[in-house]
Amino acid sequence: MDFTPQELERLIEKAIELKTMWQQGDPYSPLKNRTLAMIFDKSSTRTRVSFEVGMTQLGGHALFLSPDDTQLGRGEPVEDSARVISRMADAIMIRTFEHAMVEKFAQYSQVPVINALTDDYHPCQLLADVMTYVELRGSIKGAQVTWVGDGNNMCHSWMNAARQFDFQLKIACPEGYEPNAQLLAELGDRVAIIHDPKEASKNSDIVVTDVWASMGQEAEQKRREKDFAGYQVNSELMAQANDDALFMHCLPAHRGEEVSEKVLEGKQSVVWQEAENRLHAQKALLVLLLVDQLPDIQ
Ligand code: CP
Ligand code: NVA
User: Fold this and answer.
1) In a shared domain, residues 114 and 130
2) Distance of alpha carbon 149 from alpha carbon 21, whole angstroms
3) Disulfide check for 200: which of 61, 118, 149, 172 has CB 3.0–4.6 Å away?
4) CATH classification at residue 98
5) What pLDDT shows up at residue 76?
6) What are the 10-residue block averages of pLDDT along the chain, 298 residues in total?
7) Rg of the chain's alpha carbons, rounded to an integer?
8) Spatial CB neighbours of 244, under 8 Å, sequence gap ≥ 6
9) Residue of the nearest CA to atom 6 in ligand 1?
10) Which domain holds residue 28?
11) In terms of domains, do 147 and 174 share one?
12) Do residues 208 and 155 touch, judged by C-beta distance below 8 A?
């Protein structure tokens, strides 16, 4: 949300350009001598690999910092850690539980802080998801997107994306699993809650889902399996959407729960391209945040 719609459009264009350059073997290393500090309080495959590989491809370096190894994990205040780390690293990426922690870190940081997933949002995933749609279908402006499942961090970032990229979002979630009410109110008629997943999927260009129990909610798994019965994205549900609708999922996926094996591995699924695009979209993010804004030290 800190980027304007124009900046985001430029970021997606840049991501596609960087992907082509990389595929053509055309090296682009503007981040020589730059370091990204990556703070992970939760597990990750895609986010860690894409940021770390991205920094390598851009000529820089990425530091993996887990709570087991840093003083943050032993209770050093966020304010102090932010001031120390940001005097050395050029950008900081954080994956944690409370969104307020990232905001506080950013408040005390001298360098850009990137949200790599909190309990409330996962914006980097949306950069990759929008990029994937643009590559396959062109502009996402005016598209119809259906979210099926929990009103969670991914759902909130799809809501923010609906505003920034100008598309319509229908959210099909069970009663009691609605997204943040304040965010919903801010979005007006751009986002609608339609509890019935079949109804919500009609005329859709993208059907997207996510796990029923997110990281930190493992103890609720069994209850959620019951509450989300009927919210699986399967062939029957995909049949409600447009014939050329795409299926998206941030991954990791739980086959047989939120998505059927057939849909995940089927022709409409673009999940592997989405995962790869984390790399290209985040490279574009790092370039836009760092390259134009720092003095040349190469
Ligand atoms: N989609 C995503 O963020 O995956 P990881 O949890 O593996 O980073
Ligand atoms: N909603 C999921 C997304 C994982 C990328 C979680 O927070 O665990």
Assistant:
1) no
2) 36
3) 172
4) 3.40.50.1370
5) 97
6) 95 97 96 98 98 98 96 96 98 98 98 98 98 98 98 98 98 98 95 98 98 98 98 98 98 98 98 98 97 56
7) 19
8) 137, 205
9) 44
10) 5-121+278-291
11) yes
12) no
**pLDDT score recorded for residue 293:** 64
Number of compact structural domains in the chain? 2
Q: Establish whether residue 153 lines the binding site of ligand 2, counting it when its CB lies within 6 angstroms of any ligand atom.
A: yes
Residues 150 and 254 in one domain: yes
Check residue 296 and give its pLDDT: 46
Ligand 1 centroid, distance to 296 Cα (angstroms)? 32
Q: Which amino acid is at 242?
A: N
Q: Is residue 54 part of a domain?
A: yes
Q: Exposure pattern of 252-290 as b/e (b: 16+ CB <10 Å)?
A: ebbeebbbbeebbeeebbbbebbbbbbbbbbbbbbbbbb
Best of 119, 150, 211, 221 for a ligand 2 pocket test (most atoms within 8 Å of beta carbon): 211
Q: Contact, 150 vs 129, CB < 8 A?
A: no
